[in-house]
Design brief:
6 strands, mainly beta, 78 residues, single chain, 4-stranded antiparallel beta sheet, globular
Amino acid sequence: MSHFYASIPESARKTVATARGHKATGITVKAASWAGAVEIRMFHDEETGKDGFTVYQVPHHGQGIDRLLHEGVVGEWD
């Protein structure tokens, strides 16, 4: 059974695209423009039993920057 779930609710598609990930694989979602991209990574931390996430700006087709924007635990406020 999947642990993570991703969807694209708004796009040029007529249907909602979805993807699944497991505790062992995590899941990564990327949204991009010609100026760069934003990437969200979700993962399971076996040691704490919690799900974590990171949000990055990343280059896309040679444009943009590589920078960590935020990281945390899903469902918790820093």
